[in-house]
Amino acid sequence: MEIEQRGVDTVPEAERTSGPRDVVAILLGSNLALGVIVFGWLPVSFGLGWWGSLTSLAAGTVVGVVLVAPLALVSLRSATNLSTSSGAHFGVRGRLLGSLIGLLLSLGYTALTLWVGGDAVVGCLHRMLGLPAGAATYAVVYAVLAATTATSAVFGYRMLLRLSNILAVGLTVLLLAGVLAYAGAFHTSPAHGSHYLLGGFRPTWLLSAVSAGLSGPMAFITLLGDYTRYVSPTRHRPRAVFLGTCFGLVVGLLVPQLFGTFTALAVDAAGPDYAGPLVAACPAWYLVLLLVNASAGSVGNAGLMLYSMGLDLDAILPKATRTQATYVVAAVSTVLVFLGHFAWAAQDAMTSFVLVLTAVGTPWAVITLLGFARVRGRYDPESLQVYNRRTVGGIYWYTAGWNLQATVAWAAGSAVGLMAVDTPLYSGPLLRYTGGIDVSFLIAAAVTAGCYLALDARRPHPLPRETEEDAAVTGQGPAVTV
C-alpha cells in the first residue's frame, strides 16, 4: 500500500476502478461502530422506549437518505469531491462554504467516534485487566486511537476501502453476538427513571427523528463524493451507484443505531453516559468482542471522516498537501475528544452539534442537488479546479468566484433553519410558530429551494462543451457552452 498523493484534483479515468459494491462496503464497514451506535442511545436518553426509538430512527434515516443519496451522483460525474464539485453552483470560491461545512461535520463526528470508542476501550481494559480508569489512561487510549486513525486516513482511499471490506463482515458478527449478550435484560419500555426530554411524546419523538435519525445521512452530505469520484460513469450506471448508496446508508446507519437502542434499554442507559453502563453490564465472554468493536470499529469510522477532513482542508488551503492537512485535522479532533470527555455534557453537546449543522448543511445540499439537476450532471473538470490551482476564470467564475444568488439562498435558508432549531443549549424564536416542534431542516430546505429558484432559475447555468465520453454517459447530443 502506498500513501495516496491525490487531493481534491480531478481523478483520471484510469484510476476510477471502484464500483457500487465498493461504495456499499465503505458505508457498511465504516458505520457498524460505536460512533454510530451511540446515536441509538440518544432516543433512550430522551425518554423514548423501543417502539418510539425505532420509528423515529427509521423515519429520520429514510428522509435523510432520500435527500442525501443523490449527492453520490455529483462526484460520479465531476470526478472530484463534493465540496469542490459544488463550485459549479456556488462559484469556485463560493464552494469554500461546502468545504467548511464538510470540515465541521467530519471534525465533530470524528471526535465523537474517538471519544465513545475510547471510553469503551478504557472500560473493557479496566474490567479485563484491572487497568486504572483515571485521566492518564483515558489520555493514552485517546492518543493511540487518534494516531492509528490518522495513519489509516493518511494512506488514503485504497487503504480505507480494504479496511471497510474487513470491518463490514467482522463488525456484523460482533453486533449479532452483542444481541445475544444483552438480550436477557432487554425491555421495550423506556429506561427506568427517564422522562420525555421535551415534556411530551410527539416533540421528543421528532427531536429523536432529527438529531438521531436524520443526522446520520446528513453527516455524509460532503462525504459521499470522496468514494464515488473513484467510480467510472462509463462502466457503471448511475442507477446502480444511487441504489448502492441508498442501501449502504440505510443498512449501515439503521442497524448500528438500533443496536444502540437495544443495548441502551437493556442496560437502562438513560443518563448522560452510554459507554459506562454498556461496559458495566457486558457479560464477561463479550468483553473482548466489545473491545474489538470499540477499537477497530472506531478506527474505521473515524478514519473515513478524517480522510474527508483532510480533503476539505486541502480544498480550503491549496498550498497544503492532503497528508499535511490530514495530520492537522487529526490533532484538532483529538483536542475535541479531550473536551468531550473532560469538559462537556455529552448528550447536550451531541444533540446541539448535529441539529445546528443539519440546519446549516441542508441548504447547501439542496442547492447542490438543484444545480446538479439544472446542468443535467454535466461539469467542466478544468473549471472546477481553478481555485485549487490558484488561478482565475473558467465557466464557474461568476462574480469574482462567487455565485451570489446561490450564496444568498444558502444564507437565507441557514438563517431560517437556525431560528427554527430546538437544542438543549439554544431554542430559536420560530419555535413558537411550529408548536415547539423542531422542523428546522424542512423549513431550511423549503426556504433555500424557493430563494434559489426565484433568484437563479431564469439565468442560464454554465454548461461545458460536451465531449464524446460525456455523450456516451448521458446519451445526449453535444451542448453549447453558455
What features would you describe in this structure?
The protein has 482 residues and is mostly helical. The protein has a domain at 17-344: Hydantoin permease. It contains 20 helices and no strands. The chain has helices spanning 20-29, 34-45, 50-68, 72-78, 82-85, 87-90, 96-129, 135-155, 157-182, 201-218, 224-228, 238-266, 275-280, 287-316, 322-342, 346-374, 381-384, 404-419, 440-456, 468-474. The chain is globular and about 65 Å long.
Q: Summarize this, please?
A:
This protein has 482 residues and is mainly α.
Secondary-structure blueprint:
Blueprint: H1 20-29, H2 34-45, H3 50-68, H4 72-78, H5 82-85, H6 87-90, H7 96-129, H8 135-155, H9 157-182, H10 201-218, H11 224-228, H12 238-266, H13 275-280, H14 287-316, H15 322-342, H16 346-374, H17 381-384, H18 404-419, H19 440-456, H20 468-474
Helix pairs in contact: 1-9, 1-12, 2-7, 2-10, 2-12, 3-10, 3-12, 7-8, 7-14, 7-15, 7-16, 8-14, 8-15, 9-12, 9-14, 10-12, 10-16, 14-15, 16-18, 16-19, 18-19
Q: Which bin fits the share of residues in helices?
A: 55-70%
| Helix and strand sequence | HHHHHHHHHHHHHHHHHHHH
CATH topology category name of the domain at 17-344? Hydantoin permease
Number of strands: 0
Beta-strand portion reads: under 5%
CATH superfamily of the domain at 17-344: Hydantoin permease
Average of the residue pLDDT scores:
88
User: Whole-number radius of gyration?
Assistant: 22 Å
CATH level-1 class of the domain at 17-344? Mainly Alpha
